[in-house]
Amino acid sequence: MKEGTDVFIIKAVLPVAESFGFADEIRKRTSGLASPQLVFSHWEVISSDPFWVPTTEEEYLHFGEKADSENQARKYMNAVRKRKGLYVEEKIVEHAEKQRTLSRNK
Question: Torsion angle, CA of 79/50/64/58, rounded to 10 degrees?
Answer without folding.
Answer: -170
